[in-house]
Amino acid sequence: MGSAVITARAAATFDPAGRSVATARAFVRDTLQGWGYTDVVDDAVVLTSELVTNAVIHAGTAADVLCLRTEDGVRIEVSDHYPEREVPLQSAVPDFGSPDSENGRGLLLCAALATRWGVEYSPTRKHVWFQLDLPERPVGIRSAGPLLPVGLLPVADERVRVAVVQIDSTGAIAAWNEDAAFLFGHTADQVTGKQLTDFTAWPQTPGTNTGIVDALQLSRWEGSYGIRGADGRIIPVYASHLRVRDTHGEPSTVCLLVRDYERAVLQSPARTPVSDTNAESGKTDPFEIFIGSPAPDDLDGLLQRTAERARDMLDADAAFLLLATDDETELEVRATTGLPSARQRFARVPVEAGTGRYGSARMPAVHEDLDSVPGAVPLLGGTGMRSVVTVPLKVEGRLTGSLGVAAEAAGRYSNEEALRLQFAADRIALAVESARLGELERLRRGSLSFLVEASDLLAGTLDRDQTLALMAQMTVPTLATWCAVYTIADQSSEPYLSYVLHEDEDRIDGLKALLSKIAPPDPVPTPGARVWTAPSEAAHQAALRSSMRTLGLGETGRLVEPGRMGSGIRTTLATASAVGGETVVLPLVARNRVIGMLTLGKPSDDHFRQEILELAEDLSRRAALALDNARLYSERMAISQSLQRSLLPPGLPEVPNVEIEVIYRAAGEGNEVGGDFYDVFPIRDGAYGFAIGDVCGTGPEAAAVTGLARHALRLLAREGFGGPAVLERLNAAILDEGARSRFLTLLYGELWPQEDGSALLKVVCAGHPLPLRLRQDGSVEAAAEPQPLLGVIEELELYEQTVTLAPGDVLLCVTDGVTERREGTRMLGDDGLADVLATCTGLTAGAVAARILRAVERFAAEPASDDMAILAMRVPEPPTA
Fold first, then answer.
1. What is the pTM of this model?
2. What are the CB-based long-range contacts (under 8 Å, 24+) for 372-380?
3. Which pLDDT belongs to residue 316?
């Protein structure tokens, strides 16, 4: 190659099999297209095809193919390993043999097409190389489009911003230019080193196996996805990726991004494919356009390219490809070119359509003029196409699809074109069916994974609002563009719009306003999705009214007053576009009752695929059961909490010259009251009762004893009974409960504030942790003696003890959830509680209770497993003069 500098290389070895020729062509085509050398791709593919054919077919050995890139062209080397070849004599003029012979054509083509070429022999190897220089490409004539009126030019902002993002081999962001910071709100410092996947919203659907990570590994890629901005919004972008490597051999990917509506800035123009040359005849093979280059990895790409090449082959104005459903009763539109594909994609048409001999999709059909056979090809209705030829795709006699091309002029096609198209369809049918089955398998696996994940998420919550949000978030954008959930409280209630979500957050409010103005769908329990036309009709009407207001027209179309398009009108038009497609409703049925409807929508006349609707139906069944479980849980929780709140005192009374503070913590999620309880209540003028107790066990049985104890204490105390008599009667009432009775520890006392600023207390401690008294000097002592607990023996002999709290003294009463707080083998205990109380000298009752609680919580890392109640009473010191 002389002094040319090699800037890139790619090598591959191909087995001695007939299929290796097509694989080698694919390798060279992809390599050169990835390098940007599209001008020499076709010549390189033709030469490689012939040379590899010589190696794997005629020589019967493996073929080594090496592609070398230079600044001004490309060199391709093909070697075989024939073991017994004689080294030929050098000759001034090489002998190519006859052009009609079975070999030698590769060298003949090299001489005709290559800039330079050569052959090197060794006893075990033949090495053929050729050089293709890039053609001169003066500025401005690489590609050109027609002169268009200004109104037809693509719409862009006043300043088009192109974000340049470079991704290293690990997928991390290495470079982020100013336009990227402007478009997405993230500065370079904030994103450098982070994974691009952290910021992308990839349009993933069940069964799709290509993600952003895969796209970054390809040599070249173009397409649309979303970038999450700094404000959390998803910004649709059109991207062009090019994979490069630096001088050290490290690969990276350069990504150019523009706003999606400015995609014309980056989008590569459609290029008419040049078919390979048939080596035997020297003529262009029209059918090679279907097999001359490798099929895309995904089915949609293969179908779209097939439709485009069918149109090119017959010089048509449009082409379309449909795939049959599993039962072969309908055909689903999967690819179109020259037609409004956005409105037709995934639409279904019956196999037996129209009348006459052209009505069946199972046979080739030529329609010389569709105006004379209306409805023969439903897909072309209203498109302006006049003549059309359709051929079936069949595999082993089974209908798998239909391929058609159309022209705007009548009489363009005859049986000859039908035969040519049928021959091409036969060659591509098996590849299409194989790709379809692969897609179906991926879709089923993806659907199963989707449903498993959805079930896990729905089972993880019993909150109604969170369940509604999960339902919508799982459907948007995976299954639909927008989603609305209607709920029904009971059989006599009307459906209520509970949740609305759109993949574009800016359109949620407009969508919600639109749906609120129309009647909800009927709650029909019939399973399966049904089409609901009301949203699209309302959106179209709203858009029409907004357009008329913009033009200054009244409802009758008469000129009223010219106006300008305000933000409200723009919002209405955007909402109409968002809801303009197909809308379906799926019932939410749980326990043989319709509890709501799940509504899914598509924009711009899009249609739902049957597989997506089946997946949505499976999801709706799971979501309905989760939503009903959340409803039942919410109802029972509301009842439980209402009953629990009735067991707590409504409030603490104001006791003259005595500070009282209570802290209560019930163990267990959702519990407001457990087995512990407290109460402070007035008995009569100047006298107040207080109690703190602990019922054995937890749950409803313990709560029932709690309610019995609290209400009995108040009633008996106000009847004039003293402390021992109150507890003895309460003990009898507990024992009367029989098998439902629970033993109870209880500290009960009566409090009398004194005129000298002190407080007199009479207490009875029935099996409860002893109350602790904190004096002003910091000393702590027990304020009562232990006595038998309640609910165990019938005959109790209890007595009360008198305690006087001087100004500044504190009486602390707790349940055993405080003293029995554990961390491993350690326990806080009575002594630990006393030590904490000793540090509370001079604190108010509220501060004392808070310090005790903080000490208990810090004693162990794990959450408390027992209920806790803390009752602190303090006699304040008289104010100093």
1. 0.48
2. 377/353, 377/404, 377/406, 378/349, 378/353, 379/320, 379/322, 379/333, 379/336, 379/339, 379/344, 379/347, 379/349, 379/404, 380/318, 380/339, 380/406
3. 85
